[in-house]
Amino acid sequence: MGKKASLAGGLKLNYKRTFLIGFAFFGILLLWQIYDSWCPTFLTDIFARRIYGISSAVLKAGDPGKILNVQWLVGIIMACDNLAALILLPVFGSLSDKTKTPIGKRMPFILVGTFVSAIAFPFIPLFFHYNNIVGMIIMMAIVLMFMMMYRNPAVALMPDITPKPLRAKANGIINIMGYLGGAFATVLGIFLVLSKYINAADEDRNIWIIELPFIIASVLMVISALVLFFTVRENKIEKEMKAEMELGEQMAAIETPVDDSKPMSKANKRMLLAILGAEFLWFMSDNALGTYIGNYVIYHLKSASSSTMILTIAGGLASVLGFAIAGYIADKIGRKWTISIGLSITFAGLLVMCFTAPTGVVAANAANGEFTFPVMLYVVWVLKGFGMSLVHNCSFPMVVELCSSKKIGKFTGFYYAASMSAQTITPILLGFVLNATLAWNALPVYASILTLLSFLVFTLLVKNIKAKKVSNATGIEALGAED
């Protein structure tokens, strides 16, 4: 499309291409959902064996307080992986910005990262099954390291070829694709119930219950990367989109225009730091819930781990709804207020969770000492899923709005540096809180406080800036709304 044609027709989102780019995020959230849902419980069980000489299932029945005593170790291991990611994400982002190959600047990182992660991923449950803690942690580190090689360039690919005013809507599509990957992982968790493996006697533990989800995830990750590789030609699309990207730059919702030949303006720098500060706090909250919810359900609510999977589906469906409409809400009221509303809804849900307790009603599988899952927690997860989808959908476009196309990988690195530093600190911090309080209710209280703080930082410090308008653009894909 030439520049004149682009200006005459306005900016329109290429939905098909955006869905195809979304296959990258499909693979990311597929792996992440399985990793976060299963690995903390693997670590809890393996530390219980090393420290107390018995499985976590025996501890849960006899002395559940000791389960809380090992959570600080679980938090440290989960945080060490994130610490490596904190370092590597900005590095791979900047490297991919400067890379030039016949298949593009992002694709080499996506392909290498995917294939190495896919090979290492199934070895995590294998080493756990054979009580090899060193092998398990090494595999976790390899997976995380190469997923960082994959993640930053994969996420940067969307803004590479999407004009700035269209990125909120495009990000909604990308996130929906990602949540489809997460939903698939969740369905696997319903049929392959982790708590059945954990609660079984050692001689009755079936390795395939924990191995199959990891193998299936690896296969689907490779398939998603190949779909992306064969359908999205980076170099060709960048040439075709040049005029539209220039028009999008002129319409950016920023205080001062971006100029690579000059230092970042004070106004734009203040905006960036405020967004990243609020992002750090809401990821502190969200990752605490994601890391410990599996243990919270199994050891506090004394419910089947399949309940966690159903919980995730409920939150995922609400998230998909949020991602589908977040871009349109942002067009009407601006990205700032869309995010603020999302944080408010999330906070309301977490307040309810603070008062959620085990029901005491014996479930159908009472032989394992399991209780019925509290229905109110589904409501909490629906509110949290919808609220945080508004937040995640609009926050990343706000960060990459503040840079030119030459630095998208670098600024994507800033975005993930904030989230990964939060995910490095929060498992350790919350692990110590749980160890000190010996109360699982500390989890929702901790998350509620951090969500409230992120709301205050974002609402008070971030400006709601209007995008410039294109007078001749029409239809639902046209620009011209406030952003």
Q: What's this model, at a glance?
A:
The protein has 483 residues and is mostly helical. The protein has helices at residues 3-9, 15-52, 56-62, 65-69, 71-98, 107-120, 123-129, 133-160, 167-191, 194-199, 207-231, 234-240, 242-250, 266-300, 305-333, 335-353, 376-400, 408-437, 442-461. Helix content is 75%, strand content 0%.
**Helix segment tally:** 19
Helix content: over 70%
Q: Biggest β-sheet, characterized?
A: none
Shape: globular
Query: CATH homologous superfamily name?
Result: MFS general substrate transporter like domains
Our estimate of the beta-strand percent is under 5%
The residue-averaged pLDDT reads 80
Beta-strand segment tally: 0
Residue runs with pLDDT of under 50 for 5 or more positions: 1-9, 470-483
> How large is the radius of gyration?
22 Å
Helices, strands, pairings?
Elements lengths: L2 H7 L5 H38 L3 H7 L2 H5 L1 H28 L8 H14 L2 H7 L3 H28 L6 H25 L2 H6 L7 H25 L2 H7 L1 H9 L15 H35 L4 H29 L1 H19 L22 H25 L7 H30 L4 H20 L22
Helix pairs in contact: 1-13, 2-5, 2-8, 2-9, 2-11, 2-14, 5-8, 5-18, 6-8, 6-11, 7-8, 7-11, 8-18, 9-15, 9-17, 14-18, 14-19, 15-16, 15-17, 16-17, 16-19
